[in-house]
């Protein structure tokens, strides 16, 4: 019989019957099978051989032979078997017995691969309702498994592993951690998120940090899922010279997000003192297209960030900004606070508090054509020192108006015209070398024509 005819006969046989039963019992239709060769045995078993494929929803199965018992509705499958469930789950097996929906059954000599990262090899896998996979005598690793049979760098062996596809969790019974084939420690119970889960409460990868000042220390981060839109990570950092608790808090809102990173320390560098730092950022969308952004950077002492490797900054800046950008207008208002960590700088003599604003508008007058641009900038910075000259405080107002026009002639001459003026006004205090008030007006000269 022609292969194309066999394929269509099998599709017709395995879809019409289950659809009729499903309409009567209210169950979903069974799988659809396609193969190169089909024949029916005396006990009413339909056998498909050669390039066999079965489909059920997002599940796709490929095998050498599939036998379908029309009485029991069971599928007996001979491998090699490949079952893919979406993009994140792949099952390889030598043989299997499954129901028509491919949701329940038994697979022998199987491997479960999650998100192309984690491999679970087991003697057999029991599938239950398409949600649970129970693996027996299992070896789990994310290392590459060599074809020559050598053990991977690390693996977790367990008597039983249950994969909950819905909750995206792995549950281990009688687990032991091995490096190569050497057992390191034993865990009677263990729960881990599978690689497809982005966020789950639990321990993260530990790390070891060694410095000349703090010695060798150990960090063990613990991630806490506080909800669908916020989380907290606590990381104890312990060594012979320090006892530190690091933290990171994140939260997403309907119109924005925030994140704070920091640490609290008691160490031998400054006995009896509390050390720490706090960095934070946030962004929120406001009404009428305005955007609010803020940043916080502060530390207990100038050496703390470098001692603990949190940042290489020698100047910290905190700010809050409200801005709006549209096609023909831009507006921004900002407040900054700067703090120097340099030994050669004195914060009282630096402009640590800064106010800054900007407004720009474009107009297209129909009477004269071209483009009219207007801009106003305001700036003020203040030093906390009251000393003359080194405690100078300055405020500045800058304005600019210009008109631009381009004309193209038939002979290819392009003329760009530009005219305008700008002004500046200054207010300077606590500096006897300058007058307190100063202003100027500067005209803008027209641009020459250019041939293009």
From TrEMBL:
Residues 1-23 form the signal peptide. The keyword Signal applies. Residues 274-414 form the LptD C-terminal domain. Pfam families: LptD. Keywords: Signal. This is LPS-assembly protein LptD. It comes from Sulfitobacter porphyrae.
